[in-house]
Batch of 2 targets.
Target 1
Amino acid sequence: MRSSMNGPAFQPGAVASYLGTDCAIGVMAKSPRAGYSKTRLCPPLKPDQAAQLSAAFLRDTTEAMRAAATSAPIVGYAAYAPTGTEAALTAHLAPDTLMILADGSAPAPTGVVGFGRCLLHAIQVLFTRGHAAACVLSSDTPTLPASVLVTAAVLLLAGDERRVVIGGCDDGGYYFLGMRQPHSGLFADIAWSTETVAAATRNRAAALGLDLVELPSWYDIDDAASLDRLMRETSEGNVAPWTRHAIDTLGLSKPARAIRSAWTG
């Protein structure tokens, strides 16, 4: 069963009706390091530039969670890996962001492998902390509005244990997945890092008889084309201000092709 986000909408004052419950959102986070962060952007970027952008993405994403928490009962986390990197990561997070380890080391059912183990690990830990809903969020969507997270939380808290909310990416992945129970089947036998991830997850939700609700499609930044789009969209207004500052500081305010030419030429 699939719904759209045209269902329950958040209204001012609606948080009162959800007192006693809350929605945990964990952004999947790694401490930014040159040569390890956003490597698919190298080229056109140099490794240190990619790492600095990754840090800015984390700050904008966690700031969006923090802003959303003023309008809905949301608790923001950084679901990090590997262990031992907490101190290095903290500097790149919005104030009051909590932290949980999500390195995939927790037991997982057969078929849950690779990044799926990390996602399920995060979901399981968030539920053990007593939250009514648990979600995972990409760190590669710094322009995602806080209002989308508010909508996701309200939709989840308005549903029963079968409610699942997904936000698909333009490239076939997803940037958001939330649920009212830890449905491990949503992470089993998925070909991670492919254009089939969101479709396979939707099919799995249908097979499990879950009530799937769709958020607006968004884009993540993992290639030159999406980097160009990011630079255009952050050039006006107050969209992803930490990312915009990093772009300006690094001198990246020109098309990715020109950045690559300047590096290789």
Note: Residues 4-20, 257-265 have pLDDT under 50 and may be disordered.
Target 2
Amino acid sequence: MDISTFDPSEAVVFDLNRGQVTLDGGGPVLLLGADVVAAACAQLDANVVRQLGHALGKQAGARMRARLAALGAPSLEVMVEQLAGEISLRGFGALALERWGQALVVRIEGQPLGPQGQELLGGFLEGALLASVDREVTALALERSAQSLRLLLCSKAAAARMKTWLLAGGSWGDALTALHQAPKNDVVGGRA
């Protein structure tokens, strides 16, 4: 049985004497308004925003990896709990996982960045998974609303096929069904 190692108490430390905020004992972090970050994301090239998200995600993934080291091979539920905790610590919203057959879809509710934050959150998930479980994943946006975002965790090849399907006007639900005909390991939940 897996025991969660995510403990949000004392994860964010405010050192008012030094004028610094730290996250999980790491280096200083900045507290920025969501509206400021959303405006910056809207002005920057999508690749730059994704790289920024990837860098933030790698930091989160390193913290996850350190907490999970004692567990050996943690269950999917523990990994989701860890990732959800890291998303919450950054103020990006509440993360939940949806299984669509073999495919894993991440749903983030209450994300404050609107459509401008899609690339940032996609990069964050990719970086976090790379650093925590050493697996390269593409986080492809499937559906977004003002405060909600769904992303498919898949290989680059699967993401390319999904984009083609979606650009042709297909629904993402139908695309996920078609993706199950793909080679093994094309989606994160696929068998190796």
Note: The chain has one domain: 34-179.
